[in-house]
């Protein structure tokens, strides 16, 4: 049912539109949906959401819609947009969700309506085989297995019409080969490429421009807003309706793309392209081997100047690293020298001018990151934050705005289109204030300004509760005898409790942590305590491979951090126990978090109340949301942080969780798990 009638009423703009009336009939008893979709049943929340989406489309309005797990939100927005017609862009959080929409949800909705609409999936260029780079990849591949995989990719590229690597089974998502056989905006030759006419990226863009419904992802959406040429900018002006699913991720993904970044991986890629082009087009005219090797060595030295363990460092921390200035200076010198050598050979082939531009661009990008803009606006500079993401092999330097709100508000204010933002977790404490402010959707920020042919109010809200009976289906345990998260032995105690509960669990177990360090420690302890169980740990394999093994292995345990808190759907016995190690507050020493808190405090507001608490509430909801996925699921949620019940702010977070029946003793949770077996 609709969770808040006062809020849901705001979603309507006076009289119900004809489109909404049509949806009302389709989502009511006796609907043809029941004939075409055997698993479908009438859900009041789904009907209310579909009508609100229909009204927003007809009125060219903005709808913020929170739909609890099990509402059926995908069908609730697909039916109205297909009925309305026109061009639709659907953006979701991941490529996997794109494929699910394309292969499962959209075909079902089209079949139910008998709608003859053309659809396509558009992904970023890193998902498509680059025919030009594929021909060169063998130069950088070593080992029998890698060469066998490369031959599979070559055969795939010859036989597949789309060239989307996700369709090639058995290829690891993070395989090093992917980087060698796909292009980036840096190394793409564009119209100068000899394979331009057969280019899979260009084929995908042409198909998107000719389609009625285009499915993209948030990374692609923001990459194009940042003018990185992924093909979405051509689509946006032509769309009548934009649907942004999993909208709770938009603000954080957007920040990554609306700034600037440069890194050692780009330098290594440049060095390899330099060597290949030099030997092919200008052999003997320069020492291409030496130039390439010196660039790669300079990139490696810059990475080695940072700490060995992956993590995130603020700009001041990076600049204080011993040897950083020397390594950065050497890299700058190598880039400048390489650009100078290339300038003498630009007539040899179009590639040389592009390589020279890449050298110059990287030189400038590293220089800009090193120092604050001396001639820039101080206010603009204050709204930026710089940090370094340190990986196991590479280093990436980032500069980003603290918020996407100004840019996003400007985008919405200039487009007379319907925008639908939906997720299972958009509100905090029943309010959309935090989500709206993050996206610039407040009167002060301008994102809700009236547009031509629009109907007021432009920005509307709807909250729809989950149809699940959480009190019956689940139990919540908050242990009172564990150390606090900042006390010694907390992770070991979490692991001991997890082992105790998992031993009584007939299904799968998730242990969700807030740090990689805790994940590693808990996984090691669980392997010792549960010798007969399969214990999987983040980074043992790719996320997709881990989840596949977890789903196929009875009573397995998976320990993971941030990426496993959301976007995981494991109904039934595959997941019946979810353990969260502590409340998911962002670490205050994270450069982006620290800069945001500082800005909020400077405005006279509370960083804890206005930022840390809402972010933790949304993350906690996402983690808890992994447990109950269908009306027949049952399970236990454990939050190993007694601050959830012992503090006033903790009880506010507790109120954001599904209304599971509370149990106070571990034995009660064990008994519930045993009843489920």
Biggest sheet overview? 7 strands, parallel
Radius of gyration: 26 Å
Stretches with pLDDT under 50, minimum 5 residues: 1-14, 373-380
Structural class: alpha/beta
- The number of helical segments is 29
Q: What spatial form do the alpha-carbon principal axes imply? A: globular
The helicity comes to 40-55%
Strand order within the widest sheet? 3-4-2-5-10-1-11
Q: Let me know the number of strands.
A: 18
- Strand % is 5-15%
Distance between the ends: 31 Å
Average residue-wise pLDDT: 90
Describe the structure.
This protein is of the alpha/beta class. The protein is 47% helix and 12% strand. The protein has 29 helices and 18 strands. The strands form three sheets. Strands 3-4-2-5-10-1-11 form a seven-stranded parallel β-sheet, with helices on both faces. It has a seven-stranded parallel β-sheet with strand order 14-15-13-16-17-12-18, sandwiched between helices. The protein has a four-stranded antiparallel β-sheet with strand order 6-9-8-7, sandwiched between helices. A hairpin with a 4-residue loop joins strand 8 and strand 9 (395-401). It is globular, with a radius of gyration of 26 Å. The two termini are 31 Å apart.
């Amino acid at each position: 049912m609709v969770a808040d009638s006062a809020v849901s009423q705001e979603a309507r703009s006076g009289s119900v539109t004809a489109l909404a009336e049509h949806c009302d009939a389709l989502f009511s008893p006796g609907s043809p949906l029941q004939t075409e979709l055997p698993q479908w049943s009438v859900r009041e929340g789904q009907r209310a959401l579909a009508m609100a989406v229909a009204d927003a489309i007809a009125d060219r309005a903005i709808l913020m819609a929170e739909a609890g797990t099990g509402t059926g939100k995908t069908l609730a927005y697909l039916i109205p947009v297909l009925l309305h017609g026109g061009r639709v862009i659907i953006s979701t959080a991941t490529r996997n969700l794109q494929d699910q929409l394309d292969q499962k949800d959209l075909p079902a909705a089209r079949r139910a309506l008998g709608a003859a609409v053309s659809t396509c999936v558009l992904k970023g260029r890193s998902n498509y085989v680059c025919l030009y780079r594929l021909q060169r990849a063998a130069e950088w591949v070593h080992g029998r297995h890698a060469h066998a995989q490369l031959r599979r990719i070559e055969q795939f590229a010859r036989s597949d019409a789309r060239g989307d690597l996700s369709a090639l089974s058995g290829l690891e998502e993070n395989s090093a080969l992917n980087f060698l056989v796909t292009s980036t905006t840096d190394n793409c030759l564009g119209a100068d490429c000899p394979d331009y006419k057969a280019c899979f990226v260009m084929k995908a863009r042409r198909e998107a421009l000719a389609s009625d419904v285009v499915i993209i992802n948030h990374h692609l959406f923001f990459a194009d807003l940042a003018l990185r040429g992924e093909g979405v900018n051509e689509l946006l002006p032509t769309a009548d309706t934009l649907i942004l699913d999993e909208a709770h991720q938009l603000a954080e993904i957007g920040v990554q793309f609306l700034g600037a970044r440069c890194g050692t991986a780009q330098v290594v890629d440049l060095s390899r392209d330099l060597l290949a082009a030099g030997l092919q087009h200008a052999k003997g005219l320069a020492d291409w081997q030496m130039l390439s090797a010196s660039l790669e060595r300079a990139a490696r030295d810059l990475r080695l100047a940072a700490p060995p363990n992956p993590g995130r460092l603020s700009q001041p921390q990076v600049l204080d690293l011993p040897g950083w200035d020397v390594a950065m200076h050497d890299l700058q010198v190598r880039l400048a020298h390489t650009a100078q050598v290339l300038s003498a050979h630009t007539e040899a082939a179009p590639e040389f001018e592009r390589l020279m531009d890449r050298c110059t661009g990287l030189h400038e990008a590293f220089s800009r990151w090193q120092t604050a803009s001396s001639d820039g606006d101080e206010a603009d500079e204050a709204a930026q934050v710089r940090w370094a993401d340190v990986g196991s092999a590479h280093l990436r330097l980032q500069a980003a705005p603290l918020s996407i709100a100004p840019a996003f508000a400007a985008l919405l204010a200039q487009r007379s289109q319907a925008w639908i933002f939906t997720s299972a977790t958009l509100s905090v404490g029943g309010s959309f204030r935090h989500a709206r402010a993050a996206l610039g959707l407040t009167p002060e920020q301008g994102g809700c300004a009236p547009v031509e042919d629009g109907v007021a109010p432009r920005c509307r809200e709807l909250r729809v509760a989950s149809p699940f009976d959480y009190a019956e289906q689940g139990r919540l345990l908050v242990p009172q005898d564990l150390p606090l998260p900042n006390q010694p032995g907390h992770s070991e105690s979490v692991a001991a409790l997890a082992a105790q509960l998992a031993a009584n669990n007939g299904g799968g177990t998730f242990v969700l942590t807030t740090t990689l360090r805790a994940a590693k420690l808990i996984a090691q302890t669980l392997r010792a305590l549960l010798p007969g169980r399969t214990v999987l740990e983040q980074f043992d394999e790719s996320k997709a491979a881990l989840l596949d093994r977890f789903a196929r292995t009875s009573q397995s345990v998976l320990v993971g951090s941030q990426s496993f808190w959301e976007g995981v759907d494991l109904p039934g016995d595959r997941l019946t126990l979810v353990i969260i190690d502590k409340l998911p507050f962002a670490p205050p020493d994270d450069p982006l978090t620290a800069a945001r808190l500082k800005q909020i405090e400077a405005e006279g507001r509370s960083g804890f109340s206005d930022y840390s608490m809402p972010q933790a509430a949304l993350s906690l909801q996402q983690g808890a949301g992994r447990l109950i996925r269908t009306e027949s699921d049952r399970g236990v949620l454990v939050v190993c942080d007694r601050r959830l019940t012992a503090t006033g702010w903790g009880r506010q977070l507790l109120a954001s969780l599904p209304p599971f029946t509370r149990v106070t003793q571990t034995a009660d949770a064990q008994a519930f798990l045993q009843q489920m077996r």
